[in-house]
Amino acid sequence: MSADVLSFDKQWGKSAHIDLTDCEHDRLTSAPMLEAFIKELIKKIDMVAHGPCYIDRFGSLESNLEGYSAMQFIETSAITVHLDEVGNRAYIDIFSCKNFAEQEAFDFAKEYFNAQQGKLTVLDR
Fold it and tell me: pTM score, two decimals?
């Protein structure tokens, strides 16, 4: 196993993981706002949607895990979003074989969900 960082032209893709905390609650409880977020994110990182955006609500208040999840195929892979409306958190994963501006995606997501804290982790694939 190597810890070397590959240049993008030598790797297969990139995976960006965005963890947001202390988000604005109303932004986490609306399926239309979630779909709008994904559509705008796709534009921001210069991707192309492939097919419809799938959104569903999962969990239960009894388990303290409740919220919307979304999955959007893009021509070069997929974007998934999981919203935790009990804990006011958002988890966004972007995987693409096409390079993209992960910092721009992070900044946009943090602003869109009005998150007070955030963390960006990027993996070369």
Answer: 0.89
